[in-house]
Amino acid sequence: MIQPVATGLYAAKAPLEWAVIGNGILFTAQIPIGADGAVVEGGIEAQTRQTLENLRHTLECAGGGMSSLTQVLIYVTRRDDLATVNRLYAEAVSAPYPNRAAIIVSGFAREEMLVEMVAYAALQETIDGEAC
């Protein structure tokens, strides 16, 4: 059985939850959208910062934190953007680092997106289901 995480992030129009927990594992995919649901402007740096902030917020809502991460899959549309993503990722995530992969893709469902992160985290306790 899965339990949705009430993140308070912008309600997606697609049939999805921003994060769910199953067997003590958090499953989430985060994109660079702000509170208004729009993809943030400002290029890869702004989009990566927003994606990491959405990830941090989601982890906290689930009762964890960035140190709870076990694996992160990073998708970018341009290989040259990986240096910026790596720099910002290193500011947000500390050792011991989660397992990680970086994948170059041709694009995302939202054309203006440059980055997306899929993450898994190990959680210690069950959440109460209220929005954070």
Automatic annotation (TrEMBL):
GO terms for molecular function: deaminase activity. One of its GO terms (cellular component) is cytosol. Signal peptide: none annotated. It comes from the Bacteria. InterPro entries: RutC-like_sf, YjgF/YER057c/UK114. Belongs to the RutC family. This is Enamine deaminase RidA (YjgF/YER057c/UK114 family). It comes from Halomonas fontilapidosi. The lineage of its organism: Bacteria, Pseudomonadati, Pseudomonadota, Gammaproteobacteria, Oceanospirillales.
